[in-house]
Amino acid sequence: MNQLTRRGFLGLAGTAGAAGLTACAGTGSPGTGGGGSGSSNTIEFWSNHPGNSKTVEQQIITAFQKENPDLTVKLVDAGKNYEEVAQKFNAALAGGQQPDVIVVSDVTWFNFALNKQLTPLDELLASAGVDTGDYVDALYNDYTFDDGHFALPYSRSTPLFYYNKDLWQKAGLEDRGPKDWDEFKEWSEALKGAVGSDRFALELADGSNYLDWYFQNMAWGYGGAYSQEWTPTFSDPGTVKAGRFLQDLAKSGVVKFNATPEADFSAGLAACILQSTGSLGGISKDATFEVGTAFLPGTDNCPTGGAGVAVPASISDERKANAVKFAEFLTNAQNTVTFTQATGYMPVRKSAVELPEEVSYLEENPNAKTAIDQLPHTRSQDNARVLLPGGGARIGKALDQVAQGQDVAAVFAALDAESQQVFDNQIKSKL
Amino acid sequence: MSARAHGAEAISHRSPLKTVAGYTGMVLVLLVIAVPLFWIVITSLKERQDIYVRPAQWFPQPATTANYSDVTTRIPFLDYMRNSIVITGVLSMSKIVLGVLSAYALSLLRFPGRGIVFLVVIAALMVPNQITVISNYALVAQLGWRNTFQGIIIPLAGVAFGTFLMRNQFLNLPTEIIEAARLDGAGPLKLLWRVVLPMSWPTLVAFSLITVVNEWNEYLWPFLMSDDERTAPLPVGLTLLQNNDGVTNWGPVMAGTVLAMLPVLVLFLVLQRQMIKGLTAGAVKS
Amino acid sequence: MATVYFDAATRRYAGVHAAPAVDAITLDIEDGEFLVLVGPSGCGKSTTLRMLAGLEPVDDGRILVDGHDQAGVRPRDRDIAMVFQSYALYPNMTTAQNMAFALDNSRTPKAQIRERVAEAAKILELEDLLDRKPGQMSGGQRQRVAMGRAIVRQPKVFCMDEPLSNLDAKLRVSTRSQIAGLQRRLGITTVYVTHDQVEAMTMGHRVAVLRDGRLQQVDAPEVLYDKPVNTFVAAFIGSPAITLVESAVSDGRADLHGLAVPVDRTLAAAATDRVVVGFRPESWRIVPESDDGALQLTVELVEALGSESFVYARRPGTDGSGAERERVTIKTEKRAHVEVGDVIRVRPVESEAHLFDAGTGERLVG
Asked: How many Å is the maximal CA-CA distance in chain A?
């Protein structure tokens, strides 16, 4: 029930899916069984309502139905996080009655695409007359595989550098984020003094809560990466250096790893954190001090993240067309503004920032603007994390070991070998 | 020297020492169980900014019931509660009834193939739930039972555990009492109801309690089957209070947890008294 | 009230023993009779009883109750009540409910149930215990409830499976006579299983002795004692046991440790060349030192019971095959002062000799 089990569910879903497919208990062909049923003018939208967005999703659906009176959209509570949505979709793939539109995260979409369970959207979008050029390129191209796009960006986020302005002032620092991690290191002593004993200059999510996502920024910052295309590069000197840097921060008591750093930060227990843009609303509401946001340390090395919406491959063409229609509506300039203002995610359309309500919103909320300004400086994530099955969990676990003081080179070398093996066994033949 | 003195003291004060150790142990266990519960309750009464503070607040200041009204307004809490009660009630009843009846047949009635049937039941117990989930899903989806109560309930009504547990209980009853009842003209159902079950009361209550708690907390299958508040039970519904990708406000989550705990807690208190009432003493010579 | 007839009834347990647990028992029990089944443990007496109650199947042969074959008749339809060794009371029911259970099941009218329970309670002095549950009662009280549960039913047959073996010695003696008296009063055919030959001798109209699933002898207790059909019955019935000595017969005399015992010629002729001679403890007399022809024995053990004593003595030395000679049990008057280590001389009362064929163990009958 807590966040620690997020990863467990994904593994479970994979195992169960595999077992179910191999031993399909005489229930007929899973693909056709699922695709055939389901009404063609009802669109089932499976969402985990990212950022507590159920109300706003329903609101967009109502607007859609008004525009398309012949279509109905059924909003389904498909899980409490992205992994659960993937799990539920996995069950549906084996068992039939598939949804029309489904939320897929940066780490869940690829496996479905690889197994041809999601439909490539390019042709459908073209025939629906959608200008894909208006999607923020970095976000749209995250879903590229085999010359096709498999999802539309929806609840997209990047990490942000959140800092406590009061403590910053107390430490005598300029009101900005650090240029790079080395500068942060220089600041850390002053921050430790300002935040007080028993509290921390920096808090990071632990390996079970997406440390692997945030750490990508550090690895890139020191010239390393998780992988180049499909070749794992954890043993690259830059990556190892970043690992050692993280370990040093931990050893010198600068950083604390925690399941919910945003909560500690809001309570004033940490001077700064790396956290998703999606947390902006909650942190602003909880914090009793002035919250500052900044780009992640370094230049052009902020990973993207979050989720998009995709369409299953085995539903009928008619349903696919309706599904794309809805997916496009959900992510059009107007609705991405509605959605992101309610949740704190980032607008996925270039034209969105020009809409008057967004302009005024960003004026009032400079912190929200940070994320949008950072967007051109983002970088697509490394395959070893998002495309290799189990990648995020694998790296997260290794980073936990690094944080606990194990030898960085050895841990990363093992990670290299493991990632390569997963690629050879599960991906290579399907490319 | 000192060891000897210590030993002598230990012997002379043995029982007070033991008593103190016993009570210390009990207090420790109580704390281990009670503190998290206490924390859930007080967190549910705290205002949002008071939840994460250092030093921790052991008593909410000021206390607020806002979280509770939040739970009932932000999500259709009563719908989830109703679904939970329906699902748990029907499932527990059918599991208990099927478990008792099948265990009774497999332990005390004679019919051909009894051993084989029991083996099949035990084999069913060995298959992990996660494996059957997919084939069950396929079956239920084809029947068009997704997002229905029967779709959630029927696949879960399998009773291998209850059969196993109750069968062992029945086999441990003194055979002579069963024979006496047969000679006294008790038919199969009367034998079960008047003789076998009253002697198995503690086991049955424990089994029922385990079943109810399990069903009440059942997550995976109802989550896969249900689409919205028409059928989703509380554990699934309460996750809507948690933020998927951002900051969770734990106050309402804890308030929802407290509310979800209450019915089971009440049931437990009622049944616990029943558990003590059961007796087999004096049935046969000891 | 009913007659019971075992017609070569047989019970085999699959694979456990090669020999049947109950081997072709034929036994005719009269209406109102109190029959005791007795034998050492494992002799099949309980199985026999359970076959009658329908708790064990009959593999061969038949069991008739009132002339009706009971094959395929369910236990609950046989109208047989059973008292178990463990009492098997229903722990969740009070005394009254325990007794009423069977009547309840047979849909007896409530008023009649109350009446019969009250009557049984009166007979068994259970009136003050009607609202107690078994857990709150002593062993003796539970035993009486078990009896009460059987008698309220007014069944055709009572089956009792060692109902007294869990009582202490004193209670056992008094309950023994109570049960016998009750049975006589109610006149219900009763089959009573025990391993205790004193119970067998004192309670039954007739006693059936079983050994290894086979019926040895059915007779009135005194006949069993006086005319046992074989050495097994002779040794099993009577306490202390009979002294049996195997001996060659020559010239009309059996040799009993050197003492010549005259044997009826016709009896001797029926035997092979060797016989077993038996004398019960009361058939021995201690004779004066001067009686040279008497048997000389060394006393090994004396059991003084107050009114009488039993002396266990043995003739020193070994017999032809090198084994010790059989111990002789002698009943003496209380006045006879015999101590361990004494050497005494004894003679049997020749007319009270029991003679058995040494080969078959059968009694030699003229």
From this structure: 70
